[in-house]
Design a protein that fits this description.
single chain; alpha/beta; Aspartate Aminotransferase, domain 2; Aspartate Aminotransferase, domain 1; 2 domains; seven-stranded mixed β-sheet; four-stranded antiparallel β-sheet; 13 helices; about 40% helix; globular
Length: about 350
């Protein structure tokens, strides 16, 4: 009996820095990019704790569950938080942001989720960025779900802290993530006595011990397999072309919305307007008398690999999510999901048009 051993040479600092550079090019940014050795919640929380604290007044935009999480972190840091919540079936507007900033001129930090995969909406970051920049607040953006599915441009949009993860539209690993950091953000962190130091959450550790040192010595042993997977993921996007990757996601989203309507079984797009719908995932509202989690379970019995999920929490009763991202951003994946859902609806006694799905 033979045994195979994984014996890779250590990941060098130069290789690590080169992967950071490729991520920076993917984002079209000249800001510092730090790749953190954990799922995207690590830089999401680390960036808030580094840049916010007592004396911070934050406008926290809530268009889904992650916005709620960010508000909790900000309050835990001692910041005064002004929540701007909009219905989950829509998106926030730049006008709403402008009005909130005018009403509270003391706001110096704005937190926003670009695309909420959990609720299927996406927010107009370019327009919002203009408003935030004019006000002078620090702009924090969760682009974990949106990167690879739609444009993410920290420099052009005036984003000071832009967090991404590779596990959704990029089609990569979940175990590493990245954040681009503006000079304004670094300055804010350095002036914050409550910013984490000598901590896995610490962005300042990466700044002072990695970036300022010329990226010659890593802070700790990197997650080697995840880093190599991230490198391969970015290389695949470079080969296919970022525009082509985004076009795949946009086509999958459009086909899902159209196919759900053509199915004629009572499924409706959860996000009312197509322009507010995220290309990374499409959420669907189930017809009265049905339970979303039960329909998803039945659909997955036919094919457990389908990228389907019920909504989280209370939304598990009314929302289905078609996760057409990464390798599943294809017409085939969309058709398979809708066909399985159509059959599950038919079993509930609803009339469905499966031929309509085939033509979507």
């Amino acid at each position: 009996m033979t045994h195979a051993y994984l014996d890779l040479p250590p990941l060098s600092a130069a290789r690590f820095a080169s992967i950071e550079d490729r991520v920076a090019r993917l984002l079209g940014t000249r800001q510092d990019v730090v790749i953190m050795q954990g799922e995207a919640l690590l830089p999401l929380e680390g960036a808030i704790r580094a840049a916010a604290g007592p004396g911070t007044t934050a406008l926290n935009v809530i268009t889904g569950p992650y916005g709620q999480t960010f508000g909790n972190w900000l309050r835990d840091c001692g910041a005064e938080v002004i929540d701007l919540a909009v219905p989950f079936h829509t998106a926030v507007t730049a006008a709403q942001i402008r009005e909130a900033l005018a009403e509270h001129p003391e706001i110096d930090f704005v937190s926003l989720v670009h695309a909420e995969a959990a609720t299927g909406n996406t927010n107009p970051v370019a327009e919002i960025g203009e408003v935030v920049r004019a006000h002078g607040a620090l702009f924090y953006l969760d682009a974990v779900a949106s990167v690879g599915a739609e444009p993410v441009l920290p420099d052009a949009w005036g984003v000071d802290l832009c967090v991404i993860g590779a596990q959704k539209a990029m089609g990569g690993p979940a175990g590493v993530s990245a954040v681009s950091v503006s000079e304004r953000a670094w300055t804010r962190m350095a002036a914050n006595p409550y910013a984490p130091r000598r901590s896995y959450l610490s962005l300042l550790d990466w700044k002072e011990r990695w970036i300022d040192g010329g990226r010659k010595a890593l802070l700790h042993a990197p997650a080697q397999l995840e880093m190599l997977a991230l490198e391969a993921c970015v290389e695949r996007i470079e080969t296919e072309g970022l525009d082509a990757v985004m076009a795949r996601h946009a086509s999958a989203a459009a086909a899902t919305r159209a196919g759900a309507v053509a199915l004629d079984g009572g499924l409706e797009p959860y996000v009312h307007e197509a322009e507010d719908a995220a290309p990374v995932a499409t959420t669907l509202r189930v017809p009265p008398g049905t339970v979303a989690s039960e329909l998803v379970s039945r659909a997955l019995e036919s094919d457990p690999t389908l990228p389907l999920a019920a909504g989280g929490g209370a939304l598990a009763k009314e929302m289905i999510r078609v996760n057409h991202y990464g390798a599943d951003a294809t017409p085939e994946a969309v058709r398979n999901c809708l066909t399985a859902l159509g059959k599950a609806l038919a079993e509930k006694g609803l009339n469905v048009n499966l031929d309509g799905v085939a033509g979507a």
